[in-house]
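Why FdhF/YdeP family oxidoreductase? Reviewers of the renewal asked for a concrete example.
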Amino acid sequence: MPDTPNSPQNDPSKAGRSHEQGAQDNAPKSGERPAQGSAPAPNHYKSDPNRTHVHAHIPAPDVANAKYQHPVLAQPPEALTGLHLEERQKIAAGVTAVLKSMQFSWSEAGMTRGTHALLKMNQKDGFDCSSCAWPDPDEHRSVAEFCENGAKAAASDSDHRAAGPEFFAKHSLAELSRMTDRDLNNAGRLTHPLVKRPGDNHYSRIAWPDAFDIIARELNAMDSPDEGIFYTSGKVPNEPAFLFQLFVREFGTNNLPDCSNMCHESSGSGLTPTTGLGKGSVTLNDIHEAEVLIIMGQNPGTNHPRMLSALQIAKNNGAKIISVNPLIEAGLNHFRNPQDFMNPLKALGALVGGGTPITDVYLQVRIDGDMALLRGIMKHLFEADELNPGQVVDHAFVQEFTTGFEEFKQNILSTSWEDIEEVSGISRAQLLEAANLIARKQKIIVCWAMGITQQRQGVETVKEIVNLLLMKGAIGKPGAGTCPVRGHSNVQGDRTMGIWERMPQHFLDSLEKEFGFTPPKKEGFDVVESIKAMRLGHTKVYFSLGGNLLAAGPDTEVIAEAMRQQKLTVYVGTKLNRGHLVTGETSLLLPTFTHADIDLQKAGHQMTSCENSMGVVSQNKGVLVPVAGDQLSEVAIICGMAIATLGSKSKTDWVAMTENYDVIRDHIARVIPGFEDYNMKLRKPGGFYLPNGPRERKFTTDNGKANFSKTTLEKYPLEPDQLVLMTVRSHDQFNTTIYDYNDRYRGIHNERRVLFMNPADMEARGLKAKDLIDITSHYKGEERRVEKFVAVPYDIPKGNVSAYFPEANPLVPIGSVAKVSNTPTSKYVVVTVMPTAANNDVRIKEREKMMAE
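Here is what the prediction returned.
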């Protein structure tokens, strides 16, 4: 195995010395492209439309009655917490965001500990925020380089309360499952490894060696390595992610589902065949310089609040912003920058002013109507180009860098305005207004998130986004390009590290050369396929490195039954969540460090690294003394499991990598293009940019060109009483972690079991505000029903409704997925709604029959 000069493998004095960062700074200045190195960008998203899926039908579970069938609840309890409705807010952030940040930080972590964490979060010598993957500024960073939701995440990570063995001795799994998700999270940090043995209804303490022995015994007892499922959260840093996929592949399987399968898989599947890279092409500086920004299927005010600061800079530089969203969101309306409180000249305006107007044109699209909307804009642009030849479409760029333009053009022009307006819900005149903002501009960026990717046509819609940018020549130059906004701190980095069930052959070959084993070539299971395989009894062990698949995935009761069928479930986590309670025959709950915790190993204070949405890899070094207990780092847990399971069969030095994470990075540097001299580059302030071909107009597709796509616009008829549901987050929530019951921007307080409805749809069903309702989803003749939600009138297109996940996830059918990406369609669920009282007789009879049986 080759050595790296000046590596800690050869010189232990090099270990862990991240404070020696020097003065060098590779940050690109405004208008410049970042130094990226010359290595080709790895192509991690080479989608195969003919790929074999697990096609077996999983019947719809009895969602409504599941609470009577199992003592441990998989769904959040139905008890209402007391809805208080207020007017929807029109301004995001401001003084309230500052106060909320402090409130969460001090209440959970304490004033001293909480403040210290906040001041070190997202700093060049600190730790990476564990919430979203929005990039940090390359140059100057504010003293308070965090947003409200980042502060909540840091407060949760820094929690000084403990959920130790005594807590679990006091509370059974059934009792814990009747707590709300907020209260489970607030129980405190996990402190000791725990086990639930067959027949037990409590977790109890176990020693680490015994926990590793259980894992090794169950894994090695399987008939095939493919009977194991190894799931990863996007919160996991690069180093443990790399080790996790290494262990799983040395063990013999590619079953590496991760949260990316449920969020931006559609982005990668759409970007790779069109641009050559399944990642975005822009930098943060590009956002600042854009002339037009189109924000689609995204709510930055709640999900990526620091993005609002970048949009504010763009607006101050003259940019126009087009927002595309079924809901009117405060963060896309006006923004008061909390950072202005630190400037005496701006403090008053930040306190009482109207804030910066964000959106110039707001297109309140119907759910799943984004492709039709894009076609309408492009149809207008083609018409404008006919009237003003060469002034709208960038024909020179199209000719030099692309293929497929004429077929794409005819596809757009042949789409009728009637179809465009019907599917999108946007008038031709409104689309013209948006097109006019774009027509004469060249610096255009399209940002999108799960409002696009979790549609039935998510991949095709991403391709249509690329079509728009290509026809404008708006890619591969400052101020222009693609911007899929990632939802978790290192979800993009995990994929770069090899967390994928279909890694390309060149990656597997590099692993074989570096570690001396032959990786399996058979494709593994993604999230949906893993759930199906588990539910069908084809697997025996489920291992989760962070995350909460039960609450993040579709068809909650299907996942729960899948977990119950496993011989062993293993959950690595920092705090308790509902997913830890629904277990296999034996279950392990293993505590680990957060991004904020100091990680001391034999070589000293260790750092890890994360990759943000724009391809910057930077260090993550904890600053807080961990809560007292017996936690191990993610690296130590993976290496301990590998040693116990693989034994002498493995040639990998797992001990060396546990003791010194620089050793891990030396391996990564030799395996993954773009990470050459990893340890040296990571110690530069702000980290380094990974190679990005599309950013330089180097399109690493099969033909070396950027490819226009001919997409198919599909219509899906509904029955007269049916509505289309999309699931969303509340403001006091990050992914599946619930911090509180409020969603103040939407006027919701002290409740989560709500359904946002158009007032006309409510009137047609005889509903009033705060009426109790049941929601039933319909898919291929099957029904799933959740009970006891509260109807809330809201500004949402007629025929569309919205609810929070995870409460609404039981309605999302496991079989309803986006084409190619296999992403669950959480943004397109056909439902009917009826007053709860109307179902009482039916439910009573159902329950009486069930109890009798």
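The first helix runs from residue 66 to 69. This is the kind of structural detail the renewal will allow us to pursue systematically.
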